[in-house]
Specification:
The protein has 175 residues and is mainly α. It folds into two domains: 53 residues, Arc Repressor Mutant, subunit A, CATH 1.10.10; 120 residues. Helices cover 80% and strands 0% of the residues. It is built from eight helices and no strands. It is elongated. The N and C termini lie far apart (55 Å).
């Protein structure tokens, strides 16, 4: 049973890595097929279908994992509601996982990104129910836009400098 479990985890990792590799090659998510993924992952189609019904399910699972991890970062600091502390925690998370998100951002459409932002804001509201939703949308949209521009190498600063500038701007907004 344990070997099966390890194989299952390994297979899912191979599938995700293959998807990230394909997205990193400037391929749009809508152009990626199960066949593409199984070729890159060097697995058979049955292995893919043991875990997912289609490519979108892989993305959705990665999205849920991302939301869970980001919400954990926010929960960790929400009792003190210190914007800079929350942003530094998120920054650390994104620095550790940049390799994973950079290719994904390239493959997502603007509407997919907007949908992710709305879902994330609604999940933040569950952690911080008294927060102003318009303010959250304003801040999250701004941060997401800047972070995506950073990942697409449109902003010529490092992530630490970008975080410090964002914290300064947000502190001006919320005070």
């Amino acid at each position: 049973m344990k070997a099966t479990y390890r194989n299952s985890i390994r297979s899912k990792e191979l599938i995700r890595e293959a998807l990230i590799t394909l997205l990193d090659k400037e391929k749009d998510i809508t152009d990626i097929s199960v066949t593409d993924i199984v070729k890159v992952a060097n697995i058979n189609r049955g292995t893919f279908y043991n875990h997912y019904s289609n490519v979108i399910e892989v993305i959705e699972e990665m999205e849920q994992e991302l939301f869970g991890e980001l919400l954990a970062c926010i929960k960790q600091n929400s009792t003190h509601y210190d914007v800079s502390r929350i942003l530094h925690t998120l920054l650390d998370y994104f620095k550790k996982n940049e390799f994973k998100y950079k290719p994904i951002v390239k493959g997502l459409s603007k509407s997919a990104i907007d949908s992710l932002i709305l879902k994330f804001v609604s999940q933040i509201k569950t952690v911080m129910p008294n927060s102003d939703e318009i303010l959250l949308l304003f801040i999250i949209n701004g941060l997401a836009g800047i972070y995506f521009d950073y990942l697409e190498e449109k902003i010529p600063v490092d992530l630490d400098a970008l975080c410090n500038q964002c914290i300064a701007i947000i502190n001006k907004i919320v005070t």
